[in-house]
Design brief:
The chain has 251 residues and is an all-alpha fold. It is built from eight helices and no strands.
Length: 251
C-alpha cells in the first residue's frame, strides 16, 4: 500500500492520476468525444479571444498616470497573466459546456473502474444530458458574477502601489477554485448533489481542491498538453471524489 501524500501535494497528484486513468480500457471510449471537442474549442477560442485580450491589456495600460509610467515594465507581466488566466477559465468553461453530457458518463466510468460500481442517478440519457447542460450554465453565471467582482477589486488595487502585486494572486486562487468546482461537479452530480452542496464539500477540503485546481490551471496553459487536460481532469476529480470528497457528504 502506498503511503498517503500530504493534502497540498495530493491535489496536484490527482491530475497526474487522471492522465493514467483516462486510458483504462473501460474508460478510454468516453475520452475521445471530449478530446475532439476540446481541440476544436481551443482553436476557435484562441482565434476569437486572444486579439481582444491583447487590446484590453494595452487599453488598461493607458490608465496609468504619467507618474507611474515607469512601472509599465512591471504592469505588462501582471496583465498578461490576468489575460492568460481569463483565457484558461473561458476555455475550460466553454469546452465543458459543450462536452458536459460526455464528461458525466466519463466520470461514471472512471468511478466504476475505481470502485467496481457505477453511480445511478435514476434519470434517463436525455435527462442526464439536460441536467449537465443546465449545471454548466449555472457554473457559468457563478463564474461571471465573481469575475466581475474580482475585476472591480483588481481595478482598485491597480492604483495602489505594492498592493497591486496581489492582483495575479487573487486571480490565480479564483481560477484554481473555479477549475476544481468545474471538474468535481461531474462525479458529485452523478451522486445527486446540488450546486450548494458541491461548494460545501469543496470548502471542507480547501487545500486539496485548490491544489488540484492549480495543477489543472498550469496544465491548461501548456500548449498541446492542454488538449488532454479536460478528460484527465474529469478522471482525476473522480478519483479525488472517491478517495476524499465523497466522505465529506456524510459529515
Amino acid at each position: 500500500m502506498r503511503p498517503a501524500l500530504p493534502v497540498p501535494v495530493s491535489g496536484p497528484a490527482y491530475l497526474l492520476r487522471g492522465f493514467r486513468l483516462m486510458w483504462q480500457p473501460q474508460v478510454r471510449l468516453f475520452v475521445w468525444a471530449p478530446l475532439v471537442i476540446n481541440i476544436l474549442v481551443v482553436i476557435g477560442l484562441f482565434l476569437w479571444l486572444w486579439p481582444p485580450i491583447q487590446v484590453t491589456v494595452e487599453a488598461w495600460l493607458l490608465l496609468l498616470p504619467e507618474w507611474l509610467m515607469w512601472l509599465s515594465f512591471l504592469v505588462w507581466p501582471v496583465f498578461w497573466l490576468m489575460g492568460l488566466l481569463a483565457f484558461i477559465l473561458v476555455l475550460t468553461i466553454t469546452a465543458n459546456l459543450v462536452a458536459a453530457p460526455f464528461n458525466g458518463f466519463l466520470a461514471a466510468r472512471v468511478e466504476q473502474a475505481l470502485t467496481g460500481q457505477i453511480p445511478e442517478t435514476g434519470m434517463g440519457l436525455w435527462q442526464e444530458s439536460l441536467q449537465g447542460l443546465l449545471m454548466e450554465l449555472r457554473k457559468l453565471l457563478f463564474f461571471l458574477m465573481w469575475a466581475l467582482v474580482l475585476a472591480v477589486i483588481s481595478l482598485v488595487l491597480f492604483f495602489l502601489p505594492g498592493l497591486n502585486a496581489l492582483i495575479p494572486v487573487l486571480w490565480g486562487v479564483f481560477g484554481a477554485y473555479m477549475l476544481a468546482l468545474e471538474y468535481v461537479d461531474y462525479p458529485a452530480a452523478n451522486h445527486g448533489l446540488n450546486f450548494a452542496e458541491k461548494r460545501r464539500v469543496l470548502a471542507k477540503d480547501r487545500w486539496l481542491t485548490l491544489g488540484f485546481g492549480g495543477m489543472v490551471t498550469l496544465a491548461t496553459a501548456i500548449p498541446l498538453l492542454n488538449l488532454l487536460v479536460m478528460p484527465a481532469a474529469v478522471a482525476g476529480a473522480t478519483a479525488m471524489w472517491v478517495d476524499h470528497l465523497n466522505k465529506e457528504t456524510d459529515s
